[in-house]
Amino acid sequence: MVQPSAPTSIEDLEARLAHASALVKRLHLQYEVAGILAEAQSIDDAMHDVLTTLGRTKGWDLAQAWLFDDDQVQHFYWVDPDLDLDAYLDASQQLDFAQEGHAPAQALEAGDVLWIPDLKQLPGATRKAAAAENNVCNVLVFVLRHGQHVYGVIELASTQCDPPEEGMRQLFRLLGRDIGRFLEAMQYEARLEKKNARLAQAQRIARMGHWEWRPLTGQLHINNGTLRALGFDPGQHNPLPTLEAYVARLSEADRDRFKALLDDVQDFQRTEVEAEHAFNSPDGSPRTVILRAEAQTDRHGRLNRVVGMVQDVTERRRAEAQLRLIARAVEQAAEAMVILDALGRIVSVNPAFTRITGYTDTEAGGQLMDELLHRPTGRHDDTFFRRVTGFLLAEGHWEGEVWALRKNGEVFPELLSISVIRDDNDNVVNYVGVFNDITDQKEQEDRLKQLALYDSLTGLPNRTLLREHLEQAMTRSARQQRKIAVLFCDLDRFKPVNDTFGHEVGDQLLKQVADRLRAAVRASDLVSRLGGDEFVLVLESIASEADAGQVAHKIVDAIGGPFVVGEHNINIGTSVGIAFYPEHGDKARTLLRRADQALYQAKEAGRNGYQVWAPSVAG
User: Which of 51, 131, 370, 410 falls 20 to 30 Å from 524 in CA-CA distance?
Assistant: First the structure.
C-alpha cells in the first residue's frame, strides 16, 4: 500500500492548508446559497439575499443579476455602500440582451463561467467608459440554467484586479445550476397559480366545480366551485365528505336513479355518467344540478375513481321553463315579452311590453329591438351587442342587465333574458325575449350601497369608501406623478358639547362641521368621517406641501368660527395632521396612520393647529 508522502517543506504545508481553507469557504458559500433558496418565499427575496451573500462573502464590490421570463428582463443588484459605482450600475441596467459585446451576453453565448481580467481593456465592451469612470477592473459572469433552459445571468464585479481563487469556476457552475433550478420551480409555481386562478374564475362564471368519488373508500372530493354551485359557503369545512352525504341531499325521485347509475359504473356497464338531479341546498331550496363524470381505472383495470364536474343549471332550467310557457302565458305575463325574427326585428309583443316601454304592438312591429330600446341609451357599444349575439348563437340563451329607453325618453334598467328558437335543421328562426323593469331593485341596491359606504349622520364617505378612494387616488397619482395630501382632523372641545347639551345637539353640530369641511376644499377632494369627531380629507393633485398647509389653515379657521345649533352658541376647534403621498408612504393604511400621528403631535403642540408628519412624530 502506497503511503501519501509527507510535506517536504513548511511552504507545502501552508499551501495545502490554504487550499483546504479555500475549499471549505467555497462549500460554506454553496450551502449558504442553498439555504437562502430553500427558505425564500419569492424570487425577489431570493435574489436580494443571494447577491448580498455573494458580494459580501467573496469580496466583490458589485453583484447584479438579469433574469429572463416571457421576454421580460428583471434586474437585481447589490453594491458595496462605501463605493460609488453609479455610472457602471446605470449602464448595466440599460443592457440590451439582443445585442452582443457585453460580458453577460458573452457568457450566455459561451454557456459557461466567463472571467474578464480587465474590463476597461476589452475591445468593443458596451460598458467600457462606465467601467473606467468607476474604476471597475474585472468581472466574473455565470449563467443561471437548469437543463437546457437559461433563466438569467449573474455578474460579479470588482475594482481590484486580483484573479479569482482556484476552483471558483466550478463553484459558480454549481451555483448557476442551483439558482436555475430554484428559478424554474418558482416560475412554474407562478404559472400554475395563474392557470388555477383562471380555471377557478371560469368555474365561478359557469357555476361549476370539481367532483371526484373514490369507490373503495366512499370518500367524495369537491372544490370551492362545487360548494358554490351547491349553495354552500366555500370557506367552510367540506360538508359532503362521502358519497352518502351527497346522495342524502338529493330529492327522493332522483336518489334511486342516481345510485343506479353509479352501480352501473362499478359493474363496468358504463364508463360515463350524466345525471341531472335536484339537490337540496343548505338553505332548503332545491337546485337543479348536472353531474358529468367518467370512470378511471388503475393499471390493473380496477375502478379507481369517478371524476367529473358538477354544474348548477337552476337558472338555465328556470329560463327554459319560462320559454315553454310563453305561448300560453304571453298575454297574461307581468314580464315584458317580445318575439323577434331571425334578423332581430320585432314580430310580436305582449301588453307588459307596452306598459313598460310605452310602445304598442303596432309601433314596435318590424323594428330592430336593439335600435328601438337599447342603442339609443348610449350605454352599450357595438362590442357589447356583438358579444351578446355571439353568446346567443353559441349557447342558445343569454341573460343580463341592460339599459333601455322608453317611448317618453326615460332611460331605465332592465333584466333581459333572450333565447334562441331553432328549426329541425338547427337554423335560427326566432328569438324570444323576456325582461323586467328593475328600477326599484337598482334603487334598493343604491340604498344598500349608501348604507355600506357612507356615514348615516353626515352623508360623508365612511372608512371603507375612504380607503377605496385613497388607494385609487394613489394609483392615479403614481401614474401621473402627482402629490396627494391626507388630512386627519379631530375636533377639539367636542366632548363637553355632548356632555353639556346632549347627543342630539352634538349630532347637529357634526353635520354643520361636515358642511364647513366640504366648503373648505375643492369639489374633487374627498371629505370623509371615520366616526365620532374624526374626519379625513384627501386632496389630490396638489402642487406643493404648502398648498395642503393653506387648506389645513382654512379648515382650522372654518371650524374655529362659532356654531349655532338651535338656541345654543357653540365654539369648538380642530387639530389637523397631514401626510403626503408618496413621501410619507405608498400604502393607504400607512398614510392614514402617519396623518393620525401628526394629528396627535398637533394636539400636543396646543391644539387648534396642524402638523405635517415627520419621522420624529411616529410613536
Answer: 410
